[in-house]
Specification:
heterodimer; A: two-stranded antiparallel ribbon; 13 helices; about 65% helix; about 5% strand; flat; B: alpha/beta; 6-stranded mixed beta sheet; 4-stranded antiparallel beta sheet; 9 helices
Chain lengths: ~325, ~260
Amino acid sequence: MSEITAGPPLRASLPGRRGEAIKAIPVRHPWRWVSAAAVLALAGGAVYTIVTAPDLRWDQVGKYLFQQLILRGVLVTLELTVLAMVIGIALGVVLAVMRLSPNPVVSWVSWMYIWFFRGTPVLVQIFFWYNLNIVLKHIGVGIPFTSLHWLASTNSLINPFVAATLGLGLNEAAYMAEIVRAGIISVEHGQTEAAQALGMTRLLVMRRIVLPQAMRVIIPPTGNETISMLKTTSLAFIAAVPELFTRSEQISNFNYYVVELAIVISIWYLFMTSILTVGQYYVERHFGRGAQRQLPPTPLQRLRTMFFTLHTPPPAPPVASVLVPREQR
Amino acid sequence: MGAAPMVKAEAVYKNYGRLEVLRGIDLEVEPKEVLCMIGPSGSGKSTFLRCINHLENIDAGRLSVDGELVGYRQRGNRLYELSDPEVCKKRSQIGMVFQRFNLFPHMTALANVIEAPIRVKKESRAVAVERARGLLQRVGLADKLDAYPNQLSGGQQQRVAIARALAMQPKLMLFDEPTSALDPELVGEVLDVMRGLAEDGMTMVVVTHEMGFAREVSDKLVFMDGGVIVEAGTPREMLVNPQFERTRAFLSKVL
């Protein structure tokens, strides 16, 4: 016991002595410099080769970047993305809840839907809706054994835009269903019990307690799906929907600036996905409430602190307080 | 109905498949009474507690709260299962506090407390907030209204959970090992709140390992083991002079 007296006095909230600051010569990493140089050289070379391709007409890229048809194509691409994702998310939530339903038939129907729509290419699905009128001239609903019915020609119901939206949206729903289901399962069962013990109905528990918490798990992959969808809309060209890719095809078909137009639309796709990435960050931050003690800083706040800390010396490292039991005397 | 016991169990059985968890529980809790249940883990205490608000259903026997069967309606000789809304309505009159707190992490302390009064009892926001403020003040958290659960200590979280249950103005409170997940330092603050509740005349069923609390606060003590009630009585008699060897063996380990 007598050795202990050599240490600092045991008193709460008084820090111990701070030792001499560490000043050491850092380990050198020569290979890091070599590999960095090699990677830069390779990447730079590839980009340089393409940018300076002798027959690449950069003036045409500039000319078509803000051309009317391209701009309208951008708009259609955005419309398709939004509509398909709305259908995908709404139907996906329904399918996920069905999948988890205690009713085996309901659960099985959801399983079959996911199996079918995930198991066939989305290009084929768009193609299917686009050509449905070949085998089905009219679509309608009616009540059996009565004369109540409603009928319309397939062509008037499913125009190219609708065909593409349906194909993309219904396919997306299958993927979203799995994402939402994973989110719902990730919420601890105690949450459901606590809500039930308060007298909340199944629906209320789902809507107010489980889904908001599932969001934290659902949002990141949904962001990926949205970004992916933005690019997948280019498949709508099979249904002759005038979106971005279709527009570039139409233009290059008569001026032969195929690569230039591919670059033009790539710039647009990159621009839109970049915007979505930033948006995703803020949505994630919103649904992260309560998950972390402090919300992570926004990119703007981060920039500000970076700027700030460049000019002022970093604060001294916090001194760990000595842990002494409260009752110690 | 005033004389009816708040909780009445007659030969309650419960099994998970072939595992019998409750093997004939007979028990009565009078209004304003505090009943503590002790016993080794796996003895069925928590399961019985969860049967009272129908988080689990029983397989045989009769279990009633405030004179009404839990989960069923009896007409003549027949039992009719209650619908989801009916079960919810009954649950809303029984408060429950869990070992793991189970606060809603995406809501502030205040939002946790007003959620059920607004959504289930359809109270106006103003009324619910008013009462929630009072309750949070009562459990000593008047300055934590806007804190999220993970910004609170375990003891604070459990006190919010108690306030959340009380906000529904229950006629009965169930506590499922409310201090078992807490640091020893924080147990006292939660027990103090519970003690206050008992003094105010709340009917309480408490599953606990806190023998001190059981001795001081409970009117009736029940020792369970292997899905049956081994011994029941007043805490003073039982803790000082247990009648059965099994009780004595258990108490010698925990006291």
